[in-house]
Amino acid sequence: MNSKRTILTGLLILAVLSATVILTCKNDPSSDQPETPVVEKPAVKVPAFNRDSAFAYVQKQVDFGPRVLGSEGHENCKNWFVEKMTSYGLEVTEQNFEAEVYTGEKFPATNVIAKYKPDNPNRIILAAHWDTRHIADSDLSTFDQEEPILGADDGGSGIGVLIEVARQLSLNGPELGIDFVFFDAEDYGDSTEPEPDPADKVAVEKRQNSWAIGAQYYAKNLSGHRPKYGILLDMVGASGATFHKEDVSMYYAPGLTNGLWSTARKMGYGAYFINKQEGLAWDDHYFINTIANIPMVDIINMKGQKFGDHWHTHNDNMDIIDRNVLRAVGQVILAVVYRDELSN
Fold first, then answer.
1. Residue 35 — pLDDT band, cuts 50, 70, 90?
2. What does pTM read for this prediction?
3. Quick check: is 2 in a domain?
């Protein structure tokens, strides 16, 4: 009890001394200094994302037919990308490579890289894959399983959103540097049965690495200023789409993922960007995170471990593309780009 009283007495003395010092300082004219005014940053005006324009860009890709490695539609679509992104004043590079797929076949492939403000070291990646699946191998596929799909959503939607973002930048762009990367050879991966024994790590890794070949090549051959982070769009256009915080994104880039979803909610898009961690996607972003060591988040339509019913079927056509979903994703991306909030 005595010790408690001593402590209490000491605290009272300290409080009195502190008050005296504060009063003395306030009464000392020499201590009156003008307060530094707080200058608020002007609100950044984010342009409105044009959902009809993005829809038209998805339609244009589908009009080329399936964009499968080695096909005429693949080559023609690539040439259109180069022409379109160049027309918006971006510095466009065709990153050519040879894609050896799980069947043993080899195809010429191209990552299309379009740089906005290429000399600015303060930059990010906005990415999506542009190739389409060579077979309709979903369990829900009921016809023409050996024929390539159109890939309006899986291949077309992410690119459509990014081209519209690039168009907006050409009108009145921000200072942030951006690398638009259209990954090739993402969707020619091995889905044959049976799957390898989980104990056979070599076989498991070979199967996993049969996907996202273009992203792997890009990650190993970076050039120019190193981006701070990246955002990947995959299947962002289907009616009824929702986007959860995907497991790989949360493991390698939790701050980026949470920040992006927070931005979406503040903008009123919480019905699309669900504030819940769910699903694991072995996607392009895995290799950007693990090989390039650049944090990248995946905005992907998943519910648990399942994609939409149209995934890898011939129902992945323009009938399932929803302009409102394209706008929700595109408007969030524009906000991120113009405000540069996620760089902090």
1. low
2. 0.87
3. no
